[in-house]
Design goal:
Blueprint lengths: L8 H6 L1 H11 L1 H13 L2 H6 L5 H8 L3 H13 L3 E4 L3 E4 L1 H4 L10 H8 L1 H7 L1 H7 L3 H6 L3 H7 L3 H10 L8 H4 L7 E5 L5 H9 L4 E6 L4 H11 L5 E5 L12 E5 L7 H14 L5 E6 L1 E2 L10 H13 L5 E2 H10 L2 E9 L3 E8 L1
Parallel strand pairs: 3-4, 3-6, 4-5, 6-7, 8-9
Antiparallel strand pairs: 1-2, 7-11, 10-11
Helix pairs in contact: 3-8, 5-6, 8-9, 8-13, 12-13, 15-16
Length: 350
């Protein structure tokens, strides 16, 4: 080190690994938008249909061949496709999930993440400075109002959210539904979760409860998935009351959207509605408790900031969930880990 060199300057110029980490994080949105472009242009659908070169893909998508060639080179490098320009591109497990016509397709999720959510994250600084959401800064509306008032936005959002249903498949393994007669899915959206529970438990009846403009989406899905006599759809505001008469209540990724006071109101409504021996089953991501080191898993804390920017919501630690339940007259009975950083929290009346 020369006499004129500050002690920290050597680290700044020689720590290439740290510089690479900065670059990888800073360019993360480029990768996400490349994936979005593939989904929006239906490139996986076209590859599945035999369009294996940039020339063929350009003809199918109506965009320039040079741009498609460079995009496909990037996507193949990222592991989204197999092959190359000369040998032809092929689908792999990742690009299969981006097809529009396969079970469990994640295409709709990539669309909303690449459009509305991308714009909301672009407003991160105004949101932090004003204490509002990035969604409001970008669209001049709350997420809820936008989904209600913008044509096509509600169904698009419901399709995207149903993609994250991988934990649902493990719920029937984790919960013995044979001891219940009626399950009430509070804020059940388009009915994906409820239909899976009902299909795997033939003796169970279900009630889906959500806002009035969601009811047609739920009816369309449930009609195609289960017998009509096995379910009811009720509409209303979860912060006013929820349907009574159930002995099992489901809350899947609902609490994450609201502040503590509203969560307590919602949980207390569930407590009043359910039978004395009933159970409340909550699916949420749980953040590691605060300690001297940051959490080992980045995804729950990444989701936490995302919820802050999209809806003003938050992820919580297990003690925070226990506190919400206590305030609502409920007791935390157990917690079980499910796929995709999701936990099943079981609560009963105090």
């Amino acid at each position: 080190m020369t006499p004129l060199q500050a002690p920290h300057e050597k680290n700044l110029t020689t720590d290439h690994r740290a510089a690479r980490e900065v670059i990888d994080i800073a360019t993360g949105t480029w990768r996400a938008q490349a994936l979005y472009a593939a989904a929006a242009l239906r490139i996986p659908d076209h590859v599945a249909d035999g369009a294996a070169t940039s020339e063929a893909l350009a003809a199918r998508t109506g965009v320039g061949e040079d741009g498609v060639r460079r995009l496909m080179r990037l996507l193949a490098t990222l592991g989204v496709f197999e092959g190359a320009e000369r040998s032809g591109y092929r689908l792999n497990a990742v690009s299969e999930l981006l097809r529009s016509d396969v079970p469990g397709s994640m295409r709709d999720m990539c669309l909303i993440y690449g459009e509305e959510f991308h714009q909301a994250w672009g407003a991160v600084l105004p949101a932090l400075r004003k204490g509002s959401t990035g969604f409001e800064a970008a669209f001049g509306s709350t997420l809820g109002d936008f989904l209600r008032d913008t044509p096509g936005a509600g169904p698009k959002f419901q399709r995207a959210m149903s993609v994250g249903s991988a934990p649902f498949a493990d719920v029937s393994r984790a919960i013995d539904f044979s001891r219940f007669g009626t399950v009430v899915d509070v804020g059940g959206g388009n009915g994906t979760f409820l239909s899976m529970v009902l299909r795997e438990n033939p003796g169970l009846r279900g009630v889906l409860f959500d806002l009035p403009h969601i009811a047609p989406l739920a009816r369309e899905h449930l009609d195609s998935a289960v017998a009509p006599e096995r379910y009811l759809i009720r509409s209303g505001d979860v912060f006013e009351a929820v349907p009574s008469g159930g002995d099992a209540y489901l809350l899947s990724r609902i609490l994450q959207d609201w502040d503590d006071g509203e969560c307590v109101r919602l949980l207390a409504n569930c407590r009043r509605a359910m039978a004395g021996s009933g159970r409340l089953f909550i699916l949420e991501r749980v953040i590691e408790e605060a300690g001297t080191d940051p959490p080992a898993d980045v995804l729950p804390v990444l989701w936490d900031v995302h919820l802050m920017l999209i809806a003003g919501g938050r992820e919580r630690t297990l003690p925070e969930y226990r506190s919400l339940l206590d305030r609502a007259g409920l007791r935390l009975e157990s917690v079980e880990s499910l796929p995709l950083e999701t936990s099943l929290i079981v609560a009963s009346a105090i």
